[in-house]
Amino acid sequence: MIKSLVVAAAADCGQAGAVALGGGAVYAPTIANGDLVIAYETPLSMKAVTVDVKSRYDNRFGSFVMKDWVGLPFGSKVHGKEGKGWLHLLVPTPELWTLVLKHRTQILYIADISMVCLNLELKPGSIVLESGTGSASLTHSLGRCVAPHGRVHSYEFHLERSDEARKELIASGLGSVCDVTHRDIMKGGFPLERHEGRADAVFLDLPGPHEVVANAAACLRPNGRFCSFSPCIEQIQRTAEQLAKNGFTDIGMIEVLLREYDVHTEKLAVVTDEVLARSLAPQQHGGGGGAGRQQQQRGGAPNRHGAGSKGGKADAAAAQEDAGEGGEADAAAGEGATVDAAMEEAEAGAAVEAAAEPAEAAGGGAVEGAPGGAGEAGGSGGGGCVEVEGAPAAASAAAAAADGAAAGYGERGVKRKKTAEGGGGSGGLSAAAAAGVAAALATIAAARAAAASGAVAAPAWAAPVESAVTSRPHVDAKGHTGYLLFARKFV
Global pTM? Predict the structure, then answer.
């Protein structure tokens, strides 16, 4: 079994390789034959195992030969014989023991135990009296709090339960700190010849704690702390009345409800460089064919043409037909048309300046957003573009749908009708549009590189987010177990 908890002073706690447990207590650093270890498989699956070199431990992850565990430090990861899985060999701390112990009675869990240890003001060297050992879940934590020089005197009226608890405490290395005695405290009380005026704290888990208040007061030192655990509020009321009659102060009740937090990973829309490039440069599609041109629109990035452009009239006609078929494209034409709010949102915070330049092609009207020498529009076709702040001056930022399957489809996936005047042309991706996408991608890469080097702050669009982790409290708290009543002995 695990060597007795080392209850030496600080010099002993600093021995090489020792496993510290708090309170100045340490375990031997390595596993030996007969030690109690926690075979930790998953957070919801673990088991207390006594090491036996002649045995093996079998679980769903494989078969583990225990003789291979001897000499390993606590916390080691061991693999199954068949190599299917592994587990960790952990020290049986009070927190882990509460999760793996054999339930002989109902027990207190970590939420209540932590509140008890805190409000009883326990520290190394404290003397604690406990009545109602039960499965010794709380007893292990009390022992860890008062080690190495303190003491926990626990009393249990059931003989077999007291014997089992005593064996478990010794196996856990707490035998030198905790002792368990078979005694009915409700009938005889704590033995005054042993404890009168010597206890720093008293804990009661009894059917009638109010019957033991006077005896507990006699055992406590001045300023000593009292706690009782009761599942019914009526027990709390009777005990509180007796506490007030016996000179206790600071009487208060606490109900501990454990509420877990749910952690979720939420997928967000991924903004790739190509999508970002299209948002920074409104797409333009041009077609050949003398006096006629074809115009396609994508939802969210409609074209805008200046006055005198036949393409502008075609845009308006296409928008009207789209509206009749449930499309959501904007219809806008005429003199002085500008980029609307939808385009501004798509720009994702980038500084986009539209510059109007005269078209060089015959019959062409002014195209908004065309950079110098690159924009062509009107009867002869051609695409205008928007120049991105920080992009090369000679590069066109006109974008088009790089995915041909999606070209010509609206937001709802409805095929857009094409409007042609005076002869058809093919609505394709112009060289200027392809150059615009490349220029926007280059701008994005340059901005990321500059931000990575620390030269400038990263733009809002330079670091797209793919997912986010959120944490929120669970709707339901874990069920009520009981009430904790605390008080302090005044004199």
Answer: 0.57
